[in-house]
Amino acid sequence: MRSGIIAAGNWIRDHVKTVDVWPPQDGLANIIDQTTGNGGGPYNILKDLSRMRAPFPLRGIGLVGDDADGRAILADCASSGIDTEGLRTAPGLSTSYTDVMAVRGSGRRTFFHHRGANALLGPEHFALEGSEDRILYLGYLLLLDSLDAAGGDGKPRAAEVLRRARTAGLTTALDLVSAASGRFGSSVAPVLPEVDVLFANEYEAGELTGIVIGDSPSLDPKAAEAAARALITMGVRGWAIVHFPRGACACSGDGNVVWQPSVRVPPEKISCAVGAGDALAAGVLFGIHEGWPMEESLELGASTAAASLLHPTCSEGVRPFEECLAFGRAHGFWDLTRG
CA 208, CA 233: separation in Å to the nearest integer? Predict the structure, then answer.
């Protein structure tokens, strides 16, 4: 019986600085706290799943540099029970890092990113044939230069990786980055027919579909549902999940739609929203792996995302999955009809 989640793509060290305000250009803000932690979709998701005490194997695929950040990633994975056989060190390259500026109170954050070794991750780094794992997660497209580039068939090389994974019997999951690059049509859309589960926030879904979804608190739920349905039409095979600060909408290949509001976390408890989208994905993938209905998987995703808000790093706020669910239910969920 298949068991396990492989997470591949961006492995990043986040250097998180919490500031009192976001300043205008040439202005000044005070750094009131700073910490270092995991960053990037695969790293965040595997750390979240480890902290959730997922009862299945966790494996990473990616590239790090031969430097302090790379060694810290490998040591952290080892202590978290994450298999690093597929996480290779690239000599002469630096490990990818992001300076994250998070505003205390609002939790809003801004990212200054260095691609580093992640830029060279290609199909040749994926040994998937014969895998007995259940899910391959890949993230983030638009931030993986080699996999975003066109292959011999004219499609992004990420499509080859996902096609091989599906041929090997794996369920494929894909996540994106909110890059204002104008490349959603060329680097993401051609990959969608190889995707079983897509995660896209309101900006990414809008860029892919051309549907204006809006932003909280003025986000249009009907537009979010229309975008999720459009992503299925564009080729997503299983579930297209459009998420936003107040909730998520999932549409299946057969047209079934599931809604899940976010947890009403008191503002004074919010430390930082960095990693919340990945925490949602971790909860959903946990449920999918365990065969849960999408309704239950999305509730765990929303509750895990809420728990992640309690700490300035991506994953330190995440708790065992039962505790995440209890936290979400204790605080209740937003009413999407009222905002």
Answer: 12
What letter does residue 105 receive in the DSSP assignment? T
Q: Which pair of tokens denotes residue 9?
A: 């793509």
Beta strands in 78-119 (DSSP E): 83-90, 96-103, 109-114
Asked whether residue 339 carries a pLDDT value surpassing 60, the answer given is no
Q: 5-331 belongs to which CATH class?
A: alpha beta
Q: How far apart are CA 316 and CA 20, in angstroms?
A: 21
Residue boundaries of the structural domains of the chain? 5-331
* Residue 271 identity (one-letter amino acid): S
Distances (CA, A) of 333 to 148, 218, 240, 303, 329: 37, 18, 22, 9, 8
**What is the token pair recorded at 207?**
């860029």
Q: What angle do CA 128, 133, 138 make, to 5 degrees?
A: 65
Q: With beta carbons less than 8 A apart as the criterion, state whether 238 and 223 touch.
A: no
DSSP 192-245: GGG-SEEEEEHHHHHHHH------TTS--HHHHHHHHHHHHHTT--SEEEEEET
Distance CA 63, CA 90 (A): 6
Angle between helices 321-331 and 294-308 (to 10 degrees): 80
Choose among 154, 147, 160, 161: nearest CA to 119: 147
Within the chain, how many helices (H) and strands (E) appear? 9, 13
Q: Please tell me whether residue 270 adopts helix, strand or coil conformation.
A: coil
Bridge-based pairing of strands 5-9 and 31-39 is unpaired
Percent of the chain with pLDDT over 70: 98
Give the pTM.
0.93
- The tens digit of pLDDT for each residue in 185-226 reads 999 999 999 999 999 999 999 999 999 998 766 788 899 999
